What does this fold into?
Amino acid sequence: MNDGDLQRFERVVLPHLDDAYTLARYLLRDEHDAQDVVQEASLRALRYFDGYSGGDARAWLLAIVRNCSLTWRKKRRVDDRTIPFEDAAPLPTSDAEAPDAAAVQASEQARVQQAIAALPDEFREVIVLREVQDLSYREIGDVVGVPIGTVMSRLARARKRLAVLLQLDAREAS
Amino acid sequence: MLCDMCQASLEARIDGELTADESREIDRHLATCPSCARQFATLSETRRLVSENAMRYTAPDVLKARIRGAVARMASPPVVAPKTNRFRWWREVAAGVAIAIVSSGVTLVAANRSGTRYSAEDELLASHVRSLMPGHLTDVLSTEHHSVKPWFNGRVDLSPAVPNLDAAGFPLIGGRADYVRGRVVPVVVYARRQHMINVYAWPSSAAGGAPPNDLGRNGYHFVTWRSGGIEYWAVSDLNAAELHTFVATFAAAR
It folds into this structure.
């Protein structure tokens, strides 16, 4: 790889390290694993930079991060049942008293965070790519490697679950 | 429009994936169908709550430095002419001419350079540049000083300081054993942005400590200081000011 390619890599790909790290945090639910995977993914991206044909560099990097995360999970044999629900506080109920805006905000964040963490892997990744990374259906399909129709159905099912976890549909029904 | 058709498009409507015409059609149906409108409201609220409250993380600086360091290592090292200030261009030309004329040119150059003996800086610069070639920087790749320091045991005969300087913005990259100035020495590697800093250590012949002394050449900076019976040399293409900050932080961390 020549210096021009390296400079292009630094300019085009490296600005997205925060997004790469965010995705890895959600997929692996561990900050140290996320760091290792993002480093590995970045080096892999560098190695395969020849194959990057332009287009959205962020989605391209996120796809590599996702693949590295899956490999990492398999290698580590992370068992979803061992994901620490117990260190998460119980979901605050929606009718809890709301003393001030900051506390409400904090509790909303905690509720959302726990709800996302509770989703199965294939739902969590589409939700994060859509709501956090703001990718289009097509880009999500490219990152995950599924047709757009599958992206749509996973997103729909993921949101239904989130609505239940966040007690939005209950509120709706009452 | 039928409710089934509407519901199949609600997600796409919310995610802005429909054309203007399609969106208008959905909106018309929602205006007349309370059941679909309720679903739409739940969906919108879910979307809003999640996208507004989900965490966006920032990659730690250490991670970014590690990655930029790895990228920098891929870069071709700068071409360094092995010359000193005392070795003027015309002497190179003269030596070149001599090589062309005299068959034992190699001997002549060696003789010519022996007048100025390879200095510590020459060897360190060569070692530093070599270390930047792919695969040469570290033997032990670790950002954890507790694993770098013991790695030197049995490989080199002195135990260099391996302070944790993450907080000061100098993440540890790793360590290696190198052969410089006639002996195997420990080298601890730190990073600053995309710049690498090699810290070499020798047993000091002089007692006590010594303040940092800066010797720059060919765009590289060398800072040497003594501490705890060890002579340290930091070599980097980092600018002099930041290298001094690094040395001060390193020395203070002991």
About this structure: Residues 76-88, 101-117 of chain B have pLDDT under 50 and may be disordered. Residues 34-53 of chain B form the longest helix (20 residues).
